[in-house]
User: Which sequence fits this backbone?
């Protein structure tokens, strides 16, 4: 699932130019850049030493993740994005079936590895939904849909199932 979420986010991110990535719809909302930076920080914290240390690392500055002032370019942002995902995929790929029921901690709360993965799946999916929503709002009529275009579900299903 994580690969699909990453791909969906990147399809939305790819439609935005640098200025649009840093645009926040309101003073209280987050830009796509800020959401990406937050995911980067979360991924590094949660997945570094996943089986052996609490997922909330003392070196993490979560509040700073919600400010994009230190990131100036799309290239810098994408570098952090890739770093976060690489950390997560490395940790996941190292897991064995025997690890699934092991106990780990996130912010002092105990989780099985499976529950921790489910927790992160939900967290990332919600933020990727935000990325898509903000990108779609920014692009307006220029938005290239990431799924079935409005009003075309019947045609899509006909193609999928070979029916007319």
Assistant:
């Amino acid at each position: 699932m994580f690969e699909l979420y990453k791909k969906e986010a990147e399809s939305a991110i790819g439609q935005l130019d640098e200025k649009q990535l840093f645009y926040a719809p309101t003073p209280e909302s987050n830009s796509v850049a800020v959401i990406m930076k937050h995911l980067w920080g979360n991924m590094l914290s949660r997945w570094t030493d996943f089986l052996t240390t609490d997922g909330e690392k003392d070196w993490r500055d979560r509040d700073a993740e919600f400010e994009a002032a230190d990131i100036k370019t799309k290239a810098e942002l994408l570098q952090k994005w890739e770093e976060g995902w690489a950390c997560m995929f490395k940790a996941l790929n190292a897991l064995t079936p025997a690890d699934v029921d092991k106990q780990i901690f996130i912010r002092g709360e105990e989780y099985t590895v499976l529950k921790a993965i489910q927790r992160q799946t939900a967290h990332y999916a919600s933020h990727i939904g935000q990325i898509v929503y903000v990108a779609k709002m920014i692009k307006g009529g220029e938005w290239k849909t990431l799924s079935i275009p409005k009003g075309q579900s019947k045609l899509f299903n006909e193609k999928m199932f070979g029916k007319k």
In short: The domain at 2-161 is CATH 1.20.120.450 (Four Helix Bundle (Hemerythrin (Met), subunit A)).
